[in-house]
């Protein structure tokens, strides 16, 4: 273990030792050959196990880049990223791919479901690819669909589902490997307000009942305010970080001082 990694654990760890995501001085620059874009400029943050966090900011502020770098989908130029005690910044691409498959779930705006497969087949696919037996994959996929209240739609293909139902299938797929973290990039962005509220009801319920950690990128304040913590970004930097203090009263406070309910 490097001195820098040890320092990150000592300085940024949460007081109760429950940190699941730690980032220290993360820098990411995109070089197009003609111009360099500083997407992340020394980002440091800690997210605790069981938190539900929203990352907000204007287009181009770096919020999706931050999600991609924290989850290992994109490499960082410098700094450190640790997920559940594993330092992603020193892992090979193959190791990161395997780690994501086993320990992370992803929910995107446009579902990414295979149209020729049924709901249960879409959900079980990541397990089959990871080498889980067909019987166990099917059983776990049906359990995941049950958690999102779609077991009765298991044999239906995406074209036979509403937008909200398709997103529930995507959420079931993200949960099927019992991930430590679920990452969401605009998970309600393609839905009308009714379906968006239903999806947030579901995510909040999963967070509260199962202590599932969620990190969501969103433009929608009404979505962010359903979480327990809002991180706002601008020009590749975090400009504010607040946790809910009293939800009934709508009171938020700095994350370094506030505690979630």
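^ structure tokens above, recovered residues below v
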């Amino acid at each position: 273990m490097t001195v820098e990694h040890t320092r990150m654990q000592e300085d940024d760890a949460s007081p109760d030792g429950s940190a699941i995501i730690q980032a220290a001085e993360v820098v990411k620059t995109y070089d197009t050959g003609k111009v360099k874009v500083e997407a992340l400029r020394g980002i440091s943050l800690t997210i605790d196990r069981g938190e539900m966090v929203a990352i907000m900011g204007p287009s181009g502020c770096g919020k999706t880049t931050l999600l991609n770098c924290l989850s290992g989908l994109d490499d960082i130029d410098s700094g450190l990223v640790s997920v559940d005690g594993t330092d992603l910044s020193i892992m090979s691409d193959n190791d990161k791919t395997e780690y994501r498959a086993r320990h992370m779930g992803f929910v995107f705006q446009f579902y990414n479901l295979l149209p020729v497969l049924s709901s249960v087949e879409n959900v079980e696919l990541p397990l089959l690819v990871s080498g889980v037996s067909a019987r166990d994959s099917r059983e776990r996929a049906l359990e995941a669909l049950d958690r999102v209240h779609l077991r009765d739609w298991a044999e239906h293909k995406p074209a036979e589902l509403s937008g909200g139902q398709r997103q529930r299938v995507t959420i079931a797929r993200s949960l099927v490997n019992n991930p430590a973290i679920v990452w969401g990039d605009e998970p309600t962005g393609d839905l009308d307000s009714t379906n968006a509220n239903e999806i947030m009801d579901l995510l909040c319920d999963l967070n509260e009942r199962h202590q599932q950690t969620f990190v969501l990128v969103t433009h929608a304040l009404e979505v962010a305010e359903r979480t327990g913590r809002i991180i706002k970004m601008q020009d590749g930097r975090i400009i504010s970080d607040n946790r809910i203090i009293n939800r009934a009263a709508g009171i938020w406070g700095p994350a370094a001082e506030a505690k979630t309910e």
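Residues 29 and 109 are 25 Å apart (CA to CA).
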